[in-house]
Specification:
The protein is built from four helices and five strands. With 154 residues, it is α/β, with parallel strands linked by helices. The chain has a single domain (3-139), classed as 2-Layer Sandwich (Nucleotidyltransferase, domain 5), CATH 3.30.420.140. Helix 3 (98-106) crosses helix 4 (112-133). The radius of gyration is 15 Å and the shape is globular. The relative contact order is 0.22.
C-alpha cells in the first residue's frame, strides 16, 4: 500500500495526517486554515506531493442515526472539491466521534491553546488509522460515489 493523507475537515481548520509507506501507521501532521479553500487545497496537494501520498481520506461526520446532517454534507462537498482541485484519489470515511476521541487523547497533556492546535491533526490521524485498518481505499467510496445514507424504514 502507498501512503495516504487523512483529513479532518472543519470550518476553521483542516487537520492533516499521513500514513507510513506500509499503510499501517497514521501520524498527525498539521492543521491547515480552511479559508480560503483554494489555499487549503494547494497546501494539501503540496503535502501529498511531499510525502508521496496516493490519495486522501476525508472524515465524513454522519449522525448517530446513520443519516447525513449539515456537517456531513459540507465534508462530502469538500471531498469532491478536493478531488477536483488536486487530482487526488479522495475517499470518505465515517468519522463519528473522532474529534471527541482526539480531545480525550490530548486531555491533560497540553494547555487548552496547545491542545486546540493539535486536535484537528490528531483527529485526522484517527480517521486515517481506522481507514487503513480495514483495507484502505478498497473499503471506502470515492467522494464522487458517496451517497448520503438514509434512515432505514423511510
Amino acid at each position: 500500500m502507498t501512503r495516504w493523507l487523512g483529513i479532518d475537515h472543519g470550518s476553521r481548520r483542516i487537520g492533516v495526517a499521513v500514513s507510513d509507506a506500509g499503510g499501517s501507521i497514521a501520524s498527525p501532521l498539521e492543521g491547515v486554515p480552511a479559508e480560503p479553500a483554494s489555499r487549503a487545497f494547494e497546501r494539501i496537494a503540496a503535502l501529498a506531493a511531499e510525502y508521496g501520498a496516493a490519495g486522501a481520506v476525508v472524515g465524513w461526520p454522519l449522525n448517530t442515526d446513520d443519516t447525513e446532517g449539515p456537517q456531513g454534507a459540507l465534508a462530502r462537498r469538500f471531498a469532491i472539491d478536493l478531488a477536483e482541485a488536486t487530482g487526488l484519489d479522495v475517499r470518505l470515511w465515517d468519522e463519528r466521534f473522532t474529534s471527541a476521541a482526539a480531545d480525550a487523547k490530548l486531555a491533560g497533556l497540553y494547555t487548552r491553546r496547545q491542545k486546540k492546535a493539535r486536535q484537528d491533526a490528531v483527529a485526522a490521524a484517527m480517521i486515517l488509522g481506522d481507514f487503513l485498518a480495514v483495507g484502505g481505499p478498497d473499503a471506502a467510496p470515492t467522494a464522487a460515489e458517496a451517497v448520503p445514507p438514509r434512515k432505514s424504514g423511510r
